[in-house]
Amino acid sequence: MVKPLKRMRPAQSSQRIIRYTLMALLIFTCKGANASNKISLQLAWKHQFQFAGYYAAVQKGYYHRVGLDVSIVEGGVGKFAKEEVLSGRAQYGVAGAELLLHRKDGDPFVVLAPIFQHSPSVLLVRKNSGIINIQGLIDKKVMLLPGYKDADILAAFLNEGISPDKYQRIDQSYNIEDLITKQIDAVSAYVTNEPWQMRQKGVIPLIISPMVYGVDFYSDCLFTSEKEIKHHPKRVQNFLQASLLGWEYAMDHPQEIIDLLVRRYKVNKTKAHLQYEAREMRKIMMPDLVEIGHMNPGRWQHIKQTYGKLGLIDANFSLDGFLYSPQQKPDYKQVKQIFFGALGVIALFTIGSGILFLFNRKLAAEVKERKQAQKELARQKEKAEQYLHVAMVMFVSLDVDGKVNMVNEKACAILECNKEDIIGQDWFDMFVPESVQHNVQIMFNNMINGNISGPEYFENEVITQKGEIKYIAWHNTTVKDVHGNIVGVLCSGDDLSEKRELQDQLIQSQKMESIGSLAGGIAHEFNNILTIIIINNEMNMRELPELSPARRRAKRIEVAGIRGKDVVKQLLTFSRQDSPTQQLTDMKLIVQGTMELIRSSTPANIQIQLAIAEKIYPIFGNATQINQVIINLCSNAIDAMTDKGGVLTVELLNEIVEDSVVRPQLSLKPGKYAKLIVNDNGVGMDEKTRERVFEPYYTTKPMGKGTGIGLAVVHGIIKRHKGFIDVHSQLDQGTTFTLFFPAYEGTQPVQEN
């Protein structure tokens, strides 16, 4: 393998030389223009890498060379750039896109340049809180900055139809411990800062970004006032150009600025924390793709329209004067300086070009060889990637920090996301459940540290992007560079989820089969006993006077005997020893008729909502048994809501299940189905109850309130109809039963015995 040359490409090098030379030329020509200008820049928060460009402009003398004496003032609790610039205590400030709202309110602010192309402002929740999106914050405690300082987050709430009265807004305490200790449910934060703090305290954060909800604002905008522009136009231009040059330098030399922050500004952060901040900032600044400070008027129009739709700003509000656009009379003296300076630069370039020409001739052969080597390397890499992408197992490659740098198509399919959603993400935070995260991290660290030699076999659960848990068997091996240093881990995984599911289904089927056989045998014996009791009781009743106490007692025996025969009939149905007739059946008529009966006996505090599609696939089944299924499910739902009331929703529709969709279980085959959904918002079930809900004689109802056979019978009927039943339930949130009945395809099914 040919070792790549660690040398900047000539084109890239030339572009950078030209950019810095022209910027330096501008500073040279402006030097001494306003030698005594003392000004203040008010930061949005305390000293940190977030404001790296301004520190660089001071440290490298860019402000001084244009005659500016700049004081950088840190912000903090109760000290924001808006108030400082408005009062005149500072001439320049740093704030977010909410500057537009301040402008609407009459504050004479002018945006000079947005440093962040995307806002770092996000909402943080604890990953184990169960909150996975902004809708999950309804009725929750959300800590926000005062006023419209968290405008993009407020806009995201309103964009999703969540008005301020639907969540409890708490004033920002600027203490992440409030979230960690569960005093609040969510807090506004910067993606460049607080997630690091949470991880250091052993709490995994989940990030809710306004960008997901259609709100993508500029942020950390450098701004000033109309007064400053009117009275000091040249100072504004010089300050802006020197600041942008500082940002160029800071993003090219992040470690130097980090050392400066620790040494001079006494920043209360570790270098590792500041390095994390620098990396995250690069993602939202995109300095390699977008010129630092680039401002698109159309983007501000979009921001204004977003505010307008949400009622925060009038749609006709004009942006005139809000966006900086320097308009000066020509300064001929300055032009003359630039002209002669440019001549000097051209002379330097001429000499340098001659040297570069000789140097490039020497490099020509080496570059040609390098290109050939790169071409061969690219061919080999492409071939390897083709093998990986067609592999029947998943491949995931992690760097030393646990970030994903390669995945194949099988991995994307198993993890239910696109390649773009995975690359660059922290594998452990995104895909490893918190319950096993510690053990997996230990294994990974041992491999990275060289404590494990050779491949390592490991099994653990992963969580897909859609929240589904899958069980993977891994074969892991370290990846090394040409010097033998470990630079990552390559993991190949085999999805065992389907195999485990089939094993669980087999165990459950065997369990239900054995219970069914037992129940059937008992039912037959019990039926014989009941028959004798009922017949003899009828004979006794004929000999007893109509109004005698003995006849009344005999009548109670008759009622109990009939009820006992009904239980026996249910047991026989469950054990599949009863063979009811099946025929072409209209599900729509059955559901409508059954729900009329249920309405008549439902308590007044429970509302029934019925939704039936216009046309429903016919099925081949037994109407009486399907009627029994609906009654059992609705009765259980009503019992779950009797105390507090609620809503019982019954829905009937058509469903086409395809191979390409995620099915509740493998036993649900592709095809056409009549789909019945019974939902309530009652007390719900915990996981333990949910797992045993179809077991005969298992009940959570008080003694005398239920037999525990109802749902077992429902399960047996659905199985007899070659259908499928699925249940989802959470405590205090209700229960949903979803039933699939195979549609009649024109061929009469073989009757089961």
A few lines on this structure:
This protein has 753 residues and is of the alpha+beta class. Helix content is 45%, strand content 19%.
List the helices and strands and how they pair.
Blueprint: H1 10-30, E1 37-42, H2 52-59, H3 62-65, E2 68-73, H4 81-87, E3 92-95, H5 99-104, E4 109-116, E5 121-126, E6 141-144, H6 151-159, E7 168-171, H7 177-180, E8 186-190, H8 194-200, E9 205-208, E10 219-225, H9 226-231, H10 233-252, H11 254-263, H12 271-285, H13 297-309, H14 332-390, E11 394-399, E12 404-407, H15 409-415, H16 419-422, H17 427-431, H18 434-448, E13 456-463, E14 469-480, E15 486-495, H19 497-543, H20 549-574, E16 583-585, H21 587-600, E17 606-612, E18 619-621, H22 623-641, E19 646-657, E20 671-680, H23 687-691, H24 710-720, E21 724-730, E22 734-742
Parallel strand pairs: 1-2, 1-3, 6-7, 6-8, 17-19
Antiparallel strand pairs: 3-10, 4-10, 5-8, 5-9, 11-12, 11-15, 13-14, 14-15, 16-18, 19-20, 20-22, 21-22
Helix pairs in contact: 1-10, 1-14, 2-10, 11-12, 19-20, 20-24, 21-22, 22-24
Q: Give the count of helical stretches.
A: 24
Q: How many beta-strand elements?
A: 22
Strand order of the largest sheet: 2-1-3-10-4
Q: What would the average pLDDT be, to the nearest integer?
A: 82
By secondary-structure content and strand pairing, the structural class works out as alpha+beta
- Major beta-sheet overview: 5 strands, mixed
Distance between the termini: 70 Å
**Amount of beta strand:** 15-25%
Low-confidence parts lasting 5 or more residues at pLDDT below 50?
1-15, 31-36, 328-332, 749-753
**Gyration radius, in Å:** 36 Å
Overall shape: elongated
Instruction: State the helical fraction.
Output: 40-55%
